[in-house]
Write a structure and sequence with these properties.
By secondary structure, this protein is an alpha/beta fold. The protein folds into three domains: 9-90, Winged helix-like DNA-binding domain superfamily/Winged helix DNA-binding domain (Arc Repressor Mutant, subunit A); 153-161 and 171-391, Aspartate Aminotransferase, domain 2 (3-Layer(aba) Sandwich); 409-511, Aspartate Aminotransferase, domain 1. Helix content is 41%, strand content 13%. The strands form four sheets. Strands 3, 5, 6, 7, 8, 9, 10, 11 and 12 form a nine-stranded mixed beta sheet that branches. Helix 9 links the parallel strand 6 and strand 7. This is Transcriptional regulator, GntR family with aminotransferase domain.
Length: 521
């Protein structure tokens, strides 16, 4: 599927001297006014491409200076924005159409740690997905394939095989390609991480890194503190290792609640590790403030337990400056840093890495015992891509396109979903954590959406304690914004109908409830 790149004909057909402005106004303001009207009337929708400067000049018979000034007016009004090497696009409205998601109740004590039993729930969802293979995917965890540099990576792979024809037939180093690890160590400085190439072990994606970290610091039956809601892949990992999960509330704006974790560490002395996603937490999309990051590292260091940092989304945050990882505050090896390039560059390559802090030697032994070395070709390709400016250019384009998709989807959510829906816009990435009206079951919504040909992720898979039954996670992996708009409209109608049915049922039940004898007739 491809992004909508052509603009509707109607706005171009409007005369420069339309009724949007008086003839006494400068021509560039008249042109800006009629595009403003087209945007506000919905003729031009969020995410649609504006004409190039050359096309604008030709269609309206104006100079480059007039065309440029027209676009500057629209930019200052936040109606359009420039995308590097792509042109101008219509921006989504910056007004919040939906109220922010509810913050967690920190007065509620954490429930007792329990063995995880999420795998059967995930298996059921996967099997249901397989019954609808052509469903429009709003439940995925990676961007659309056409947002990744497919051609550049293919060419790099061919060059690597020509230079080193035995790459596919020669076993590689246990820790991973030395050149790649050296490049990663240099790049880690942007996140505030001081490591050398020998302090890095390459892994099969981020999930192997997290599994290795858990195996290094726990034994079956141990308790691990996790965010709530929590990425279901982590819950699956805990279940496979026979570990108990203690769910700590997380805020949709600031992530893991540090006060709640502090209390849990005081009341649950059996906690052996904490797992946190500080930047664009999955599914919340939250970013932890630096003060919270520092406090989190301090708490775990004081308790003498491992802090496992899962950080695959940091480079997708919309920020002028690179965000710091938890590892940046680590002075004694408390933090085990896990990350990957799955979300930012190439989901199919499955390249991750880990620095194990004071557990690094044990993690190296576990990695060798579990899966040996990673295959070399993808590492060599990644090293070539990272050592030029190609990766930075790709990241800028990817963040710009994802921001455009999120804004378009946020506008469609606000226009389509019923009263009672809540949503906190994320600071980047692709995830939307949607709080539906309390009457709507996310499991029922999941089933109804699949029958409509749309995939979503129900909130039930993000907790082992049944805390998020009326939540769903949506994502914006598709670049076909028109199809996404249509899917969200249909989901909004589903949510509205389910809310109305639940309200009608509650009202009917209330009418048939016998009054108590003490009620006044």
């Amino acid at each position: 599927m491809h992004a909508h790149t052509s603009m509707p004909l109607a706005p171009h057909a409007l005369p420069a001297s339309s009724n949007d402005a008086t003839a006494s106004e400068p021509l560039y303001r008249q042109l800006a006014a009629h595009y403003r009207r087209a945007i506000r009337n919905g003729v031009l929708r969020p995410g649609e491409r504006m004409p190039s400067m050359r096309a604008f000049m030709q269609r309206h018979g104006v100079s480059l200076a007039t065309a440029t000034e027209s676009y500057r007016v629209l930019e200052r009004e936040a109606l359009i924005e420039a995308q590097p090497r792509a042109g101008y696009f219509v921006r989504a409205s910056q007004n919040a159409a939906l109220p922010a998601a509810s913050e967690p109740d920190l007065a509620t004590m954490p429930r007792a740690a329990q063995f995880v039993g999420i795998h059967s729930v995930i298996s059921t969802i996967v099997s249901q997905y397989q019954r609808y293979p052509d469903a429009f995917n709003l439940g995925g965890a990676t961007a659309s394939p056409d947002l990744y540099p497919t051609d550049a990576l293919q060419k790099a792979a061919l060059r690597a095989l020509r230079r080193r024809p035995t790459l596919l037939t020669t076993a590689g180093p246990d820790q991973g390609d030395p050149a790649l690890r050296a490049i990663i160590a240099r790049r880690a400085l942007d996140a505030g991480i001081q490591v050398g190439a020998d302090d890095i072990i390459m892994t099969h994606g981020g999930i192997e890194a997290v599994n290795l970290a858990l195996r290094a610091v726990t034994q079956p039956g141990d308790t691990v503190a996790v965010e709530s809601p929590c990425f279901f892949g982590l819950l699956q990992a805990l279940e496979s290792l026979g570990l108990r999960a203690l769910e700590i509330p997380a805020s949709p704006s600031t992530g893991l609640a540090i006060e709640a974790l502090d209390f849990a560490l005081q009341t649950h002395p059996d906690i052996k590790a904490v797992v946190a996603v500080p930047n664009l937490q999955n599914p919340l999309g939250s970013v932890m403030p630096d003060a919270h990051k520092a406090r989190l590292v301090e708490l775990c260091a004081r308790a003498g337990i491992a802090l496992i940092e899962d950080d695959p989304y940091r480079e997708l945050v919309d920020s002028a400056q690179p965000l710091r990882s938890l590892k940046a505050w680590d002075s004694d090896g408390t933090v085990i840093h896990c990350t990957s390039f799955n979300k930012t560059l190439a989901p199919g390559m499955r390249i991750g890495w880990i620095n194990g802090g004071r557990w690094h030697p044990r993690i190296g032994m576990l990695k060798f015992a579990q899966s040996r070395h990673n295959e070399q070709l993808s590492q060599v390709v990644l090293a070539e891509f990272l050592q030029t400016n190609a990766y930075e250019r790709h990241l800028r384009r990817l963040r710009d396109r994802l921001r455009m998709q999120r804004e378009r989807m946020a506008a469609a959510l606000g226009a389509s979903f019923p009263e009672g829906t809540r949503f906190t816009p994320p600071a980047g990435g692709i995830f939307f954590w949607i709080e539906l009206p309390r009457e709507v079951s996310s499991a029922d919504f999941f089933d109804a959406a699949l029958k409509e040909g749309i995939r979503v992720m129900p909130g039930t898979v993000f907790s082992n304690a049944g805390r998020f039954d009326h939540f769903i996670r949506l994502s914006c992996p598709s670049t076909d914004l028109d199809l996404a708009d249509d899917a969200l409209r249909r989901l909004g109608r589903l949510a509205t109908a389910m809310t109305a049915r639940a309200s009608a049922y509650a009202s009917a039940a209330d009418k048939h409830t016998p009054r108590s004898h003490c009620e006044t007739p």
